[in-house]
Specification:
Elements lengths: L1 H15 L3 H19 L4 H23 L7 H18 L6 H16 L3
Helix pairs in contact: 2-3, 2-5, 3-4
Length: 115
């Protein structure tokens, strides 16, 4: 459909003008939306949302542990610490979704330069 092509091109153009940090913030916001939707959904939706969050935080933790990462060591250590806390919460018998949502929102805000 022609309108889909226009929308696809517009979306691609918007991504080109976004910084990597803005794109990273968008990933956190996407996972927040999935966690929020899972709050009142069935068990399968909750498991899927947690799996998305786990993939996100595993990737983030791996990236900040990489020796070639240019972030200051203190920042990297802080992110690893947050990631370990998030992983521990996700491993709980009944993970606190509100906590996970809050952490991800704060990270997204930090990446976006929001207060």
């Amino acid at each position: 459909m022609p309108s889909e092509n226009v929308a696809t091109r517009a979306y691609a153009a918007a991504l080109i003008n976004r910084t990597p940090r803005q794109q990273e913030a968008d990933v956190f916001r996407l996972v927040v939306a999935r966690l929020q939707a899972a709050l009142h959904a069935d068990a399968i939706a909750r498991v899927r949302a947690l799996a998305d969050n786990r993939r996100l935080w595993t990737t983030v933790s791996d990236l900040v542990r990489d020796a070639g990462n240019s972030l200051p060591p203190e920042t990297r250590a802080g992110i690893v610490s947050i990631g370990l806390t998030v992983q521990k919460e996700m491993d709980a018998d009944a993970p606190n979704f509100d906590f996970l949502i809050t952490v991800n929102k704060h990270i997204a805000a930090g990446l976006s330069g929001e207060p």
